[in-house]
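hiii, so i know i said id send this last week but things got crazy w the move. better late than never?? heres the sequnce for the chain we talked about at the cafe, plus the structure i predicted for it. fair warning i was half asleep when i ran it
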Amino acid sequence: MLKGNFVAFMAHEPLINKEPLDEEELHFLEEKASKDSRLFLYVIKWMIVACVLIPLSFDYYYYGLFFLLLFSGSCVYYSYYLTLRKILKDISFRTKIIECCTIKRKHFMSLNNTYHFYIHSSQKLSIQVSETDYNRLNEGDEVSIEYTEFSKMYLGYF
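okay and structure toks below
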């Protein structure tokens, strides 16, 4: 129980909308899924080869083979579950999230000559913006960011 003067306040909740993906964004996700699945199958192929070649002791060959297949299979499934499955789910649902965020801080990176906004968002800390938007918008202004619903892949801002 709190005693004394307690003032409850609510933090600024970002406004979130769900919209269908554009054709360009859908094509980007399909290319990303295709590239990631090719890489995924390449890794699986070499893990199976390693599982067959590594347990060289003939006494415990099948135990070692079973353990390595089980271990590498678990790792492969976990990595699929974290990455590729979410991208495929985004493609099948064809939706994106548009979140209206407040600009907390503007920052120019002189090392690589880029402009960034630090924003109040549940998914992104900062976004890279164009020079015109950097000069046009100020701290406290609102900017909308787009990202996919399940994989949370950043698509852009406006």
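btw The longest helix spans residues 23-53. thought thatd interest u
miss u guys!!
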